[in-house]
Amino acid sequence: MAQRRRSERTVETVASGVAEIVPDPDRDSAFTLVLDGAPQSHVDLADPTHLEFEYIRRMAAAIDLIAPPGKPLRSLHLGGGALTLPRYLAVTRPGSAQRVIEIDGPLVELVRRALPLPAKANIRVRVADARAALEGMRDGGYDLIALDVFAGARTPAHLASVEFMAEIARVLDPAGWLIANIADGPPLRHAKAQVATIRAALPEACLVADAAVLRGRRFGNLVLLAGRTPPPIAELSRRAAGDWFPGRVETDLDRFTGGAAPVTDSVAVASPLPPAGLFGNRK
């Protein structure tokens, strides 16, 4: 079985680099999408609620808590990958109308072919730049926006500015939520600036991450939940503490940002590259 599944590995060149669909040796129905050597998404086709990556579990926990269980959400996903969160939402909140914006057309076709979506999932995928796509959307059209865009393991600069966040806030329902994945390492300069930038548009927010990442001791993912009303701190804290890899919720974001200013288009930069060898032990 292991030998046969190794032969199922798919490798193709897509717009953003070399993509691999790698079978999970521990789960017969699961696969990892790897882009240029960096694990990008993990999907279990038989059980979309199985979430392997800890930052995705934190994003999913936030999604679970922003509305009553099972309530459909109008959802926009900026960044598609293998569509892990849309698949999760389709199962946990049936009837949700979901749109995904992914810039890499060949990647979209690879995922559709190798990791097909459930037949009844209401997930529409559009090939476009996330910011350009937002500009044509109507005000207040979404209850949830998930922001998880990476190109070459970095978030592009034009998706890291107050102008972009103002567009996100515009298309969010007044009671809606942004869930953003921010990748950074010591001294967290990028993460602090991004938190300040997002809060300029959506001021009620909290961060969820590994304690060592929050303290600036190692590179990792920080998940920001932001909106216009107070986030569900107590419930989110319980979920983070009970994870396979326990995390912590940071609510004092003024202290976290340490006076960092929101970033405008004129000075925005891409997120930092992960340290060399960070993904070297991934299979």
TrEMBL record:
Signal peptide: none annotated. It comes from the Bacteria. CDD domains: AdoMet_MTases. GO terms for biological process: polyamine biosynthetic process. The keyword Cell cycle does not apply. The keyword Isomerase does not apply. Keywords: Polyamine biosynthesis. PANTHER family: THERMOSPERMINE SYNTHASE ACAULIS5. NCBIfam families: MFS_SpdSyn. This is Spermine/spermidine synthase.
